[in-house]
Each structure stands twice: as structure tokens, then as C-alpha cells.
Amino acid sequence: MSVEPAAASRRRAPTRGDVILLLLLAAAIPWMRSFLLSAGAPQELVVLSAAAPARALTLSESRDVEIAGPLGTTRLRIRDGSAWIVESPCERGLCQTMGRLRPGRSLVCIPNRVVVRASAAAGDVDAVTR
Amino acid sequence: MSHASDMRLWPRLALFAAAATLLFLFERALPNPLPFFRLGLANVVTLIVLLAHGFRAAAWVLLLRLLLGGFFAGTLLGPQFLLATAGSAASLVVMAVAAQFGARIWSPLGISVLGATTHAVAQLVVVAALFAAGQGVFLLLPLFVGMALLTGTCTGVVADIVLARLDLATRTAPERSP
Fold it and tell me: In angstroms, what separates the C-alpha of A78 from chain B's closest C-alpha?
């Protein structure tokens, strides 16, 4: 411990090292995000409908899936390990605004009686209270 | 360390600890829309003391600030206090190492960013380990690190300015003889 600040050895901001450090850490954020999300992301999904037998699908294969319901056909899009409803014969189209299927969650079209459930990876939480 | 410099240093550290406590309490009083988002104003003082007076001095100021801040905020020995202690202790160690070996690479800004990032990561580790929250809390890591980059930059810029003025003050001040 010394009273006099050690001024000589200190550099003023920003140095090149500061900028490189910030850029590296900032670049690591999307990487961390995708790494963490893929670790807990569902690998499979289960499609339940009142008008068709249940079936299991894999998320790794990108395609559109047609699900028959009492009202008509609900169309599910599977892309890049994620899934969302693009079209449904329901009146208000709420299911199309649900966004992407997240781990442990479901996409639901109540009027057409269709449920798309993510089968969460092992070790994921059972439920979350809010 | 001579006796005379000791006599001049301790009052200064006490002032630094008081300033850090005030900044800590001021920041707590601010309206805060995000429960886990804190600017870390008090860490500016830790960084300044570390760079101006070394690790031992910074550890003293940090300890005093944690105890005083915890006492006045009513969080002493509670979970918040534990998180703050773990976060700032880890942050201080990393900043001290960075200041020791990276002084030619980083200005206070870079050291502050390293400290803020460490603070965020350490808090998540403690939450996962002690509060049985499981691995799920690490999903917050990208958000926390992103916040830490912002807050670390802010506090780093402030520390950089204050340190430059402190240098100027000590260099231009007439030497006081005992």
C-alpha cells in the first residue's frame, strides 16, 4: 500500500487492449446464448389432435407439417431446430402469434383442438412458477 | 511501508470507504425497473483504490463498504449481502491480477470491464451453488455479461477520469513536510 498513486504505469482509456477485450466479450454473448439455448432446447415434439392420432416428430428436420383438426388443417413449420404455427383455421389466429416452441412449453390451437408439445431434454426443469 | 505513509493512507482509505458506502446506498435508492441490474457505482471506488493504492488497500475499502453498506441497507449477512460479497471479492481478485499483469494492455476501462464481467459470473455461480436454483440460472449468463459490458464501461470511464485527476492532484500539490 502506498500513498502516492502509481501514475507512470497507468494508461488512459481507451487502449487498443480495452477495445479488443470489449469486442471479444461482446462477440462471446451470441455464442453463449446459442450454446446455452441449444443445451436445453427440445429435440423432439409431440403433436396431439382431436381428429388424428398422436405423433412424435423430430426438430432437426426442417419442413412443414399439416395437422388435421375438427375445423381443418393447422400448419406447423419446423425450421432450424425450432417450430411455430404458420396457419390455422381458427377465428382469431392466436396460435400463430404464440411464436416459437420453447423448451418445456406447448403451442396450442384451442378452436382446432391441436396441441404441439415440446418434449424437453432430460435435466430440464419440470415447471416454472411465475 | 513507513509509519508516516501509513498515517496518511488510513484516513484516505476511510474516506474512500465512506464514499463507496454512500454510492452504494445512493444506487439502492434509485428506482430500478430490473431487479438484477445494477450500475455498480461503488465498484468505481474499489477500482480507484486498487489502481492508486494496491490490492490490500482496495480489499480494506471493499470490506468496510460491504459491512457498512450491508448494515445501513439492512441486508447484512442476508442472501443479497452474500451475493454482493462473492461478486465483489471475485471481481477484486480478477481486477488485481489484470492490473498487475495487464497494466500495459488495459487502461482502467478494460480492468473495470473484466471486473464487472467477473462480478456477474460469480453471482450466477453462487446462486446456482447455494440457492438450489440449478443450472437454469446460467441461461441468464448472456444477459448478465451484456449488462456487465455496459456497466463495466461506464464505471471504467469514471474511474479513468478520477484516477487521472488524482494523479494530477498529487503531482501538482506541494509536498507537505511533517
Answer: 23
